[in-house]
Design goal:
There is one protein chain. A nine-stranded parallel β-sheet has the order 3-2-1-11-10-9-8-5-4. The protein has a two-stranded antiparallel sheet with strand order 6-7. It is of the alpha/beta class and 300 residues long. The chain has a single domain, classed as TIM Barrel (Alpha-Beta Barrel), CATH 3.20.20.30. 37% of the residues lie in helices and 15% in strands.
């Protein structure tokens, strides 16, 4: 079992030291989250609450994904980095390929693109991107990014992106994995058909068998069941995590779990606040050390 420490909403100035300590404590990686911005009012329903309302406050921090990964990679040697989730269709694929590919290269291939298609229409409107075609746009973006990462001169002519005879340098020395997040049928299908893994936004242990069965079915349908595939889950509710639960998930075929962010109120409507909206670096180290001692070392 691979253990990822969530660094969602963490103070940006603490990230490098958190990464350094997470590596020392035995975490496989750190996993962040992303929005360009949040709006005071939105017409878009939030997909992960029953009432469709955002489950944390407007002023939560979302440090930039790729600059954060680069900074944390610079002070570590084995720690991995992914996101749950990077809003891929907000961007141009060539721009993301440059950022993620460079980050992969300088980190020694320790980053992956953990992405989703987004839910907040206002972000897409501000970026001039059609919200309603974001799924199809994402699928083509994956194709484009893999194409330019191969190196050499390439062309592409698709529904959303067109270019002739371009070459992008530098390129990563290994393929950069794509992990798709989300709970919708489209997200599961995209993960199985196009990606190297799936990141769950929040599942109970009892929900895992059906999820894994559906991913297996879709991968067989796509003829990709023989390829490596990661399944990384956030276990809900946040107070249900523990060695027994993680062993059950591992036996089912879950390859990784995300341990809660330092402010767990951000995923649980403040019913379980953890360290709260802000906390010291020492407090965060104590929490990570507690997970390492009571979960990671007992699992291994």
């Amino acid at each position: 079992m691979k253990f990822w420490q969530s660094i969602s909403w963490t103070e940006a100035e603490q990230l490098t030291e958190i990464a350094r300590f997470a590596e020392q404590a035995g975490f496989h990686g750190v996993i962040n989250s992303e929005h360009l911005f949040l709006t005071r009012k939105t017409e878009s329903p939030y997909p992960y609450t029953a009432d469709g309302k955002m489950n944390h406050a407007l002023d939560y921090a979302y440090p930039d994904v790729w600059s954060s990964f680069a900074a944390m990679a610079a002070v570590t040697t084995t720690l991995k980095f992914t996101s749950s989730v990077y809003l891929l269709p907000l961007r141009n694929p060539l721009e993301v390929a440059k950022q993620a590919g460079t980050c992969a290269l300088i980190s020694g291939n320790r980053v992956s693109v953990g992405f989703g298609v987004g839910w907040q229409k206002e972000e897409f409107d501000q970026m001039g991107v059609d919200f309603h075609t974001r799924g199809k746009r994402t699928d083509e973006m994956i194709e484009v990014m893999r194409k330019v990462w191969q190196g050499g001169v390439v062309s592409h002519h698709g529904r959303f992106f067109n270019f002739d005879e371009i070459e992008m340098r530098p390129v990563p020395t290994q393929p950069v994995p794509f992990y798709c997040g989300g709970k919708s049928p489209a997200a599961l299908r995209r993960a199985a058909y196009l990606c190297d893994g799936y990141i769950g936004p929040g599942h109970t242990v009892d929900e895992a068998p059906a999820l894994l069965a559906e991913l297996k079915r879709l991968r067989q349908e796509a003829g990709r069941e023989h390829l490596p595939f990661e399944v990384i889950l956030i276990v809900m509710p946040v107070n249900a995590r523990g060695v027994d639960a993680f062993r059950r998930l591992e036996d089912m075929g879950v390859s990784g779990v995300t341990l809660p962010p330092f402010d767990t109120g951000g995923i649980d409507r403040n019913r379980s606040a953890g360290l709260g909206r802000s906390s010291t670096l020492d407090d965060k180290k104590r929490q990570m050390d507690h997970y390492a001692e009571t979960i990671i070392r007992r699992m291994h």
